Structure formats: structure tokens, C-alpha cells
């Protein structure tokens, strides 16, 4: 049943979908399945399937009688998919279908979108899709996915992807796929579906997301750079380029990055990569930090991880301060040493002793001496 459903959606087989969907299914569900199939068929997937996870969801005990069916079944299911030429491995997303049995025949009744077992929605569930494939060098392929009406943003990002991949590779090295899937959303609902409930796109231009990396594996599933619906209006040519390069750095480094590592290095490294090929001054790159320094509030400690969750000026200062730390390392010790420091510290621990030890091993400076040297660099750049 799941295989037939996957094949019908992937190939936009209207007759097969009609045979699969129950006669009591809501018209809105029938319409959404038809639209999903039409949109999915326009994308070249190397994998598209549904798989049982194990365990069933509870259903209303009176639903079978109300529908006049013999049995109602709500299994735990995952959508498994990969986009050809872009995804190295398949990603898996939770969905919650409901099936009914009439005699020996099973049909699809619904695909729940709310409650505890919400169904994940992809770009193809929100509107028709527009795609652009991009050659990003050495046989690698990237893609931008969006919707009718935001073609201008899609095309700009597609043009910038090749240079962005080259820029990241110059800093990080060639040990990554050099492929990216960029999604341009058209609504807050779509943005939240793709990046998680913590973000609605109101205060950020883009987010990079992925499946949890498997230690030792070089490929990470579900890597996406998702632009918010407001990004096209909020971003200039320069800021759009910087945001893309920042998020692409996270994509390149994800397999070597353990959650819980010092955010000042993870975000600072991405910010440094975003601006490294420009001639912008420190004040251009970090205007909020510059204003605080001018007001006599120069930072005297490395930012805490919690600082990066702040909104408004405090959040901006956290990111700009992180950029200044990594720019200092690149200036004083070289970009290779900056990447070496990233690899040394992106191992999951933000404990002060661990940071001190790895700074000493990589740069020959204990943390206090490192902060003092960085403070002197700030004086040179901002005063």
C-alpha cells in the first residue's frame, strides 16, 4: 500500500491515486494529494518512498462505525526522499496517514496535519514548484527550489551559488559535497514547516537545517538552506550573498560539527566565511559592535552560547562579536589555523577548560591570553 502510494505521488498518476484514496476522504485531502503529486513529479528524485517505523497511533474508537468500514489503522510512517544529484543520502520525515479497510481492500483516508503526530510538509505541499539546477564545480550539482512569484529571488540565489561554493571551499577545503539545496519559502507556515517551530521567519533571513549527523559519516542527510518569505525584500545584493555564504559554511562543516560546541566559533567561522572575499571594513561588517565599542562597552569575554538566541541588538552583537574573534584569528594566525581551530573546538564541549586546552594546542595561547590579544585587535580595527 505504501509503495503504491509513493509511486502514484512520484509519477503524478491520477488514476492510481483515485484507486488509493477512500471514498469517504475529505475533498480537501483529495485536492492536496492531487496537488502534491503534480508538484512532486516536476522534481527529479533519486528516492521517494514511505516506510513503516513501528507502532501505531490511537484512533477514535467510534470512527470505523461512523465511516461504515471494518477497520481503521494509523501507523507510524516516514517519508524517505532524496533529490537526484544533490542529496548524497536520503532524509526521512514523519507523516501520519490513516488507512481504512472495507473487506479485504485498504484505502487511504487522511494524512494528519495537526496534533501530536503532525505530518511534515515539504515545499511541494504549499504551492507549485519552480526549480533551478546549478553546476557548482567538479561535477557537483546544487538546486534552488521556490514557487511562482519568487522567481527573481530564486534566480539571484542560483547565480550566486557557484561563487559561494567556491568561496566556502577555499576556506574549509574540498572535503565536502560542494552541493546545496536552497529553498525559498512563500509563507511563514511553509518556513516553520521546513525549519521547525522555533522559527517563523519574522526576524531571520535564512536558516540551515539537517538531520542529526552520524559520527564518522561524511554525508549528512536533509541538509537545506531555507530562506524566509521576507528575505527577498529585506536583503540587498551584498547581504543576500553574505547570508547564503554563511549558511553554506554550516552545510560544508556539518559532518564535522557536534551540537553543543562553542557558538562563538561555529557562528563566527560562518560569518568570517561570509565576508572574507569582500573589502568591507570591520565597521561595515559589525556596525552594532562598533557602536558599543564607541560607547565604551567593548566586549571583554567570549560570548556564551545563550547569547546567540537573543533577538534584536543583543543577538546582532553576539554574531558580530563572533565574527570579530574569527577575523582576529585569521589575521593573526592565518585561515588554515582558523579552520584547524574550528575542527579542534567543534567537538561538542563548551567547557572553559576544554576551550582553554584546545586554544593552547592550536594557537599556542591560553584562553586569557587569547582574549587579551583579541581585545588589542579590536582596538586596532574599531578605534
Features:
single chain, 383 residues, Glutaredoxin
Structure summarized in a few sentences:
The chain has 383 residues and is of the alpha+beta class. Helix content is 45%, strand content 17%.
Shape: elongated
Oligomer: single chain
Helical content stands at 40-55%
Radius of gyration: 24 Å
CATH fold naming of the largest domain = Glutaredoxin
Mean residue pLDDT: 94
* Low-pLDDT residue intervals, each spanning 5 or more residues: none
- Number of helical segments with 4 or more residues: 15
Q: Please give the alpha-carbon distance between the first and last residues.
A: 68 Å
Our estimate of the beta-strand percent is 15-25%
Strand order of the largest sheet: 7-8-9-11-10
- How many distinct folded domains? 3
Query: What composes the largest sheet?
Result: 5 strands, mixed
H/E element sequence: HHHEHEEEEEEEHEHEEHHHHHHHHH
Shape-level CATH architecture of the largest domain: 3-Layer(aba) Sandwich
Summarize the structure in words.
- The protein is α+β, with helices and mostly antiparallel strands.
- It folds into three domains: 2-120, Nuclear Transport Factor 2, Chain: A, CATH 3.10.450; 121-255, Glutaredoxin; 257-383, no CATH class.
- It has helices at 2-10, 14-20, 27-40, 63-67, 151-172, 188-195, 231-234, 237-253, 263-275, 282-285, 287-294, 312-333, 335-345, 352-363, 367-382; strands spanning 45-56, 71-73, 75-83, 91-95, 97-102, 105-111, 130-135, 141-146, 181-184, 206-209, 224-227.
- The strands form three sheets. It has a five-stranded mixed beta sheet with strand order 7-8-9-11-10, sandwiched between helices. Strands 1-3-4 form a three-stranded antiparallel beta sheet, covered by helices on one side. The protein has a three-stranded antiparallel beta sheet with strand order 2-5-6, with no helix packed on it.
- Strand 7 (130-135) and strand 8 (141-146) form a beta hairpin.
- Helix 1 (2-10) packs antiparallel against helix 2 (14-20), helix 12 crosses helix 13 and helix 13 packs antiparallel against helix 14.
- The longest helix is centred in the middle third of the chain and has 22 residues, at 151-172.
- The radius of gyration is 24 Å and the shape is elongated.
Amino acid at each position: 500500500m505504501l509503495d503504491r502510494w509513493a509511486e502514484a505521488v512520484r509519477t503524478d498518476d491520477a488514476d492510481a491515486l483515485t484507486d488509493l484514496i477512500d471514498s469517504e476522504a475529505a475533498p480537501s485531502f483529495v485536492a492536496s494529494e492531487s496537488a502534491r503529486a503534480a508538484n512532486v513529479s516536476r522534481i527529479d528524485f533519486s528516492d521517494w518512498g514511505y516506510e513503516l517505523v513501528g507502532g501505531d497511533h490511537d484512533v477514535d474508537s467510534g470512527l470505523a462505525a461512523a465511516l461504515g468500514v471494518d477497520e481503521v489503522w494509523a501507523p507510524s510512517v516516514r517519508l524517505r526522499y532524496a533529490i537526484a544529484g544533490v542529496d548524497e543520502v536520503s532524509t526521512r520525515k514523519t507523516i501520519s496517514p490513516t488507512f481504512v479497510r472495507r473487506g479485504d481492500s485498504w484505502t487511504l483516508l487522511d494524512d494528519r496535519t495537526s496534533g501530536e503526530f503532525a505530518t511534515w510538509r515539504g515545499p511541494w505541499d504549499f504551492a507549485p514548484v519552480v526549480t533551478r539546477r546549478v553546476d557548482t564545480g567538479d561535477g557537483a550539482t546544487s538546486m534552488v527550489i521556490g514557487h511562482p512569484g519568487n522567481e527573481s529571488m530564486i534566480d539571484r540565489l542560483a547565480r550566486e551559488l557557484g561563487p559561494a561554493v567556491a568561496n566556502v571551499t577555499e576556506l574549509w577545503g574540498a572535503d565536502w559535497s560542494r552541493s546545496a539545496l536552497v529553498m525559498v519559502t512563500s509563507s511563514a507556515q511553509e518556513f516553520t514547516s521546513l525549519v521547525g517551530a522555533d522559527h517563523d521567519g519574522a526576524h531571520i533571513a535564512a536558516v540551515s537545517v539537517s538531520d542529526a549527523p552520524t559520527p564518522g559519516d561524511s554525508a549528512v542527510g536533509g541538509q537545506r538552506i531555507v530562506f524566509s518569505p521576507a528575505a527577498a525584500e529585506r536583503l540587498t545584493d551584498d547581504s543576500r550573498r553574505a547570508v547564503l555564504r554563511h549558511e553554506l559554511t554550516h552545510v560544508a562543516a556539518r559532518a564535522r560539527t557536534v551540537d553543543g560546541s562553542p557558538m562563538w566559533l561555529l557562528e563566527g567561522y560562518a560569518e568570517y566565511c561570509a565576508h572574507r572575499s569582500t573589502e568591507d571594513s570591520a565597521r561595515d561588517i559589525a556596525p552594532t559592535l562598533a557602536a558599543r565599542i564607541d560607547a565604551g562597552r567593548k566586549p571583554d569575554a567570549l560570548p556564551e552560547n545563550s547569547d546567540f538566541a537573543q533577538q534584536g541588538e543583543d543577538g546582532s552583537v553576539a554574531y558580530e562579536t563572533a565574527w570579530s574573534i574569527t577575523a582576529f584569528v585569521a589575521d593573526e594566525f592565518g585561515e588554515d589555523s582558523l579552520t584547524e581551530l574550528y575542527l579542534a573546538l567543534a567537538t561538542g564541549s563548551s567547557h572553559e577548560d576544554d576551550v582553554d586546552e584546545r586554544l593552547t594546542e592550536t594557537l599556542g595561547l591560553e584562553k586569557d591570553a587569547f582574549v587579551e590579544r583579541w581585545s588589542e585587535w579590536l582596538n586596532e580595527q574599531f578605534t
